[in-house]
Q: What sequence folds into this?
């Protein structure tokens, strides 16, 4: 049965080559999105909420640092703003009756309190590491109790899109003028007799100086990143 599938694949590719110009290309499977994540603040890891293989949503907290001191200062800043705002609103009602310099001082304290709260909120937010998009964790190098430094960024998680993939296709530079966005790519994964089809969605604007190949992308789903294969691009004349 396996030999039959291989024969059918060969016949299909041969037929495609005879009926339309087929340009041979190889590819590897890559995630459509991927990112290396690191804390940009310094501190001790208090919690690690995910592990390798976990699916996460955008803005989901992946890990956090000890932050009780920063949280306390955040609350102090909220209280300071609360009373600075009340004072400002009282003085605003009688602005025409008080010294201008006095009113400016009140307004300045109010603006400073808002800025201080924004600053403390930003510090607090940096103690949480969040997912930048919906995806799956595929690498982890962090444990509770680890010390991290925002001055020396260290990747602690790697995340990739859960099902969305792209084929990173390479074809000979001599065919650079023939391949266009929208061309069909008929391909198979190495070790898999099944054939698939996709559409060229992007062509890179430069050649690889070492391999003399042009790169293109084909969008697909569900394949494991790192797989590879080959196929033929059917160009339009």
A:
């Amino acid at each position: 049965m396996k030999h039959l599938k291989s024969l059918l694949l060969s016949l299909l590719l041969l037929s495609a080559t005879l009926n339309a110009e087929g340009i041979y290309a190889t590819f590897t499977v890559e995630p459509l999105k991927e990112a290396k994540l690191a804390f940009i603040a310094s501190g001790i890891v208090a919690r690690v909420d995910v592990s390798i293989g976990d699916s996460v949503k955008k803005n989901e907290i992946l890990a956090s640092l000890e932050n009780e001191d920063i949280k306390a200062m955040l609350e102090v800043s909220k209280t300071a703003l609360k009373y600075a705002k009340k004072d400002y609103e009282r003085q605003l009602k009688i602005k025409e009756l008080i010294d201008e310099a006095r009113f400016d001082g009140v307004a300045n304290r109010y603006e400073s309190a808002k800025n201080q709260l924004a600053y403390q909120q930003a510090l607090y937010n940096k103690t949480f590491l969040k997912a930048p998009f919906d995806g799956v964790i595929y690498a982890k190098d962090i444990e509770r109790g680890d010390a991290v430094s925002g001055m020396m960024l260290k990747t602690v998680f790697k995340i990739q899109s859960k099902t969305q993939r792209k084929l990173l296709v390479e074809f000979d530079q001599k065919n650079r003028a023939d391949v266009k966005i929208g061309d069909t790519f008929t391909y198979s994964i190495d070790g898999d007799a099944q054939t698939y089809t996709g559409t060229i969605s992007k062509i890179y604007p430069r050649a690889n100086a070492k391999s003399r190949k042009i790169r293109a992308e084909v969008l697909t789903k569900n394949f494991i990143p790192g797989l590879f294969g080959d196929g033929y691009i059917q160009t339009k004349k």
